[in-house]
Amino acid sequence: MRTQDFLATIHTEEDGNGEASKLVMSYVAAVCGKGQEVNKVKEQLLQSNPVLEAFGNAKTVRNDNSSRFGKYMDIEFDFKGDPLGGVISNYLLEKSRVVKQPRGERNFHIFYQLLSGASDDTLKKLKLERDFSKYNYLSLDSATVSALDDAANFRTVRNAMQIVGFMEDEMQSVLELVAAVLKLGNIEFKPESRCNGMDESRIKDKNDLKEMCELLGIEQSVLERAFSYRTVEAKMEKVSTTLNVAQAYYARDALAKNLYSRLFSWLVTRINESIKAQAKTRHKVMGVLDIYGFEIFEENSFEQFIINYCNEKLQQIFIELTLREEQEEYVREGIEWTNIEYFNNAVICDLIENNQNGILAMLDEECLRPGTVTDETFLDKLNTICAQHQHFESRLSKKSKFLNDHSLPHNCFRIQHYAGKVLYRVEGFVDKNNDLLYRDLSQAMYKANHSLIKQLFPEGNPAKVNLKRPPTAGFQFKASVGTLMSNLQTKNPNYIRCIKPNDKKASHIFTESLVCHQVRYLGLMENVRVRRAGYAFRQTYEPCLERYKMLCKNTWPHWRGPARQGVEALMTDLQVPAEEFSYGRSKIFIRNPRTLFFLEEKRKQCLEDLASLIQKIYRGWKCRSHFLLLKKSQIVVASWYRRYAQQKKYQKIKHSTTVVQSYIRGWQARKLLRELKYQKKCEEAVTTISAYWHGTQARMELRRLKQEVRNKRAVTVIWAYWQGTKARRELRQLKEEARNKHAVSVIWAGWQGTKARRELRRLKEEARRKHAVAVIWAYWQGLKVRRDYRKFFRANAGRKIYNFTIQRIMQKYFLGLKSKLPSMSPIDKSWPARPYSFLDGVHTELRRIFHLWRCKKYRSRFTEEKKAVYAEKLEASELFRDKKAVYPSSVSQPFKGDYLEISKNPKYQKLSSGVEEKILLADVVNKINRANGKGSPRLFLLTKKSVILADQKTGQVKASVPLPDLASVSTSTQCDGFFALKLKEGSASAVKGDFLLSSDHLIELITKLHRISSTAADREKLSVDISDEFLVQFKQDKVCVKFIQGSHKNGNSVSCKRKNNRLLEVSVPTSP
């Protein structure tokens, strides 16, 4: 994949089971990258294999898990080598195995896996039983294979389908079709003669037919007629003929084969939808071809013929690409070469696929020929046309050497394939090539209600009837093989040849003759000789130079001359020995792989050096870029800061100027003020001077008097200070004497404490000795008592052991109960099981106590608002539970109350301000008109004292009903929102009669009405009547409102119609 965009691996095995392709897929998954999306793609690619194996593999005499179909998978990779997705193509499922298996072989695995691994409920839904012998399509001689665990494989298949992306209903539909095929095989027919002498067929037991029709959703009569009659259309004419028993069995088997084959094709298409690459651009692609190997059985039929034809085509590609083309390439490139002879099987391919005289062309011509066509006529035609072919042998051919060959039966022909001679029995060739499914059966299948059947039988659509004969099986397979060959030609194929060591399906056994035969007919000897004499690796000069040019200084980084000279300079510089390579005209050829490994190792080392150089340059560039960014940022920050500093300086100067101006103006104003004041003072000078003078004289006199007082008080103060000084001196002397006396007391106290502590330690030591003697004496007394008491212990031991055991059990019980307590949810009814029966009463009482405590804890978390909400919900449950059909849907809906947000909505501001009480509920309801049963929207407001109805558009109050005037509320038991507010007779609000309304929040509305009336002490509790028929008072007339179940024509809406003057009929849908 490194140098090639399109790669193909071809796996061929001797009756293989696809193990080689699974190993390739596992290897691809292991070496690819990791990641959530990549892991998902890898897992889907890997898990598609168990699904296809279950539906396409079967046990044969040579292999317990033999592939009975061909598979080609394209896997797309991105530039990192991670898988993006894939596309699977399938070739020729051996659908004849569905209805008949050779001795010692089984049907497809899925039938046995379904019966062995499905649960009892699944089998009951599919109307199946586990006994294999109940089904005619399952062979009993090898139904159980020791190497296969069908039950475990069924679980693996279910899990793989989920990983690939199958939905649960899709998996159920697939299993229903598998079950239908089994049921189809149990349908048997009996002959019945008609009055006109024609024989027709009838179904013996219609029970299997009935169960099959129930699985597929087909009317039993339609399918029964399709098994009994056949309609032939030719232009404008239709002819219906009866089917005899043989034809009915043929129709049954044809339907079973087509149903299973189309189901398998649908599975492949469905898997492709899940695993296909999401990207629109095409990346590198690896194709994995896993196809059936060459088959030679005791009895070989049409399936083995076309399988061996496919292997002939693959062998032809192998010969062309590995032997002929490689040798021609050496000659074309001018490399010295000795030609190696090999067998070319093109002559065998021409014998089979020639458009004029090929076996497939003659088989198609015989199938399309009018008149009586049998397998014998086909064999006669082969004997006439192919008699002279060197690889064709027949007992009835013109060659005399086969006339007495008793190993060649009369109804057989033999072809000498590249793998050996194969004897084909012509019986069934024409029918299997026709692969004809009667149009009546296709149309019957198209009428099914099953989700898959219409997709599988599109030709049954009566609107798209195609009278053209469908292509034969041989033609379709030949076209598929041609497409496959064209696809492989566009890729670079690699071959994996799987050699079968023995025919016993056992390990560690090597049959030399069998292995040599396989090596010989696969052409491996010639291939080995070509490979040993040739070159292991070749590449054109341009990509070679481009890949390895960094290994030479002369070619790195650019080579200016021709690519060949650059490669020569490169190889010379690397000193590669001349015998290890050769120069062709356009390519270089390398003989030994170790030379290529040497180049790759040198390239790896060089790439590491280049990576280090790139990292160094990148890190330098990154650091320089970071530095330049920092430098640029510093310049920007500096410019912004300078701008900010200049702005601050300007503002400071501006502020200073303003301050100076304000000070100057202030100074000028104060100067003017002083002048004005001076003029005023001059005018008042005489009065002022006189007043000051008198004041001065008065103050001088006052100071004189105060001085005299101070002189008298000074003598007293000085004496007091002197007395205080003397007293403080005496106090200090007394304190000093007291300190000296205290020091002596402290020293004496410390000495006495030391003596006391020594005495205490001595006394403690004596006490310890005395205590030790007492303890030893107590132990001795205890030992004597135990010896004396031992003889009395056995009499009371049982009771004590019993009490101890009970105490231990109770302790263990409570500890275990502590660790296994259920959750704190009050609705959790789980409780640990009691370990012993004698704890039954305690266990029950503890469960009750725990539940009560848990409920108390749960209630303690409620706020007042939440308690009110739960109280309303509880009251709603008491009113409507099991009475009103719409109640269950209202349980999960919270009671909001104000649905209009009337206090915040400016549209209803006037209406909100006009209501004095608090609005408990605001909603839009429909007021029902008795004249025509139609509703008009009204605003419904509920307060603690009244019910208010207002116009929705204008907000104008239409009616206001005090709550004491309400007599009762009536509603139906069904899932509608109609209710009637019945007023008390004689009240002021009852003049216009009762109100018939409809609301989407009926439960909440009636609950709040009932709750308000029950909490009021001055009025009776509001009555709530739930009935499908009640009376409503409209002015002077009473009208009956009747609720009925509506039909499907009315849809899911509730409608109210007036039947007469006394009856309004409300039609309610059947389900809420």
From TrEMBL:
Domain TH1 intervals: 884-1070
Xref: InterPro entries? IQ_motif_EF-hand-BS (IPR000048), Kinesin_motor_dom_sf (IPR036961), Myosin_head_motor_dom-like (IPR001609), Myosin_TH1 (IPR010926), MYSc_Myo1 (IPR036072), P-loop_NTPase (IPR027417)
- Is-annotated flag, keyword Ribosomal protein? no
The protein's gene is named MYO1B
Which UniProt keywords are given for this protein, alphabetically ordered?
Actin-binding, ATP-binding, Motor protein, Myosin, Nucleotide-binding
Q: What sections of the sequence does the record tag as coiled-coil? A: none
Q: What is the lineage of its organism?
A: Eukaryota, Metazoa, Chordata, Craniata, Vertebrata
Region annotation Actin-binding: where it falls in the sequence: 481-503
> Under what name is this protein listed?
Unconventional myosin-Ib
Q: Give the species this sequence originates from.
A: Characodon lateralis
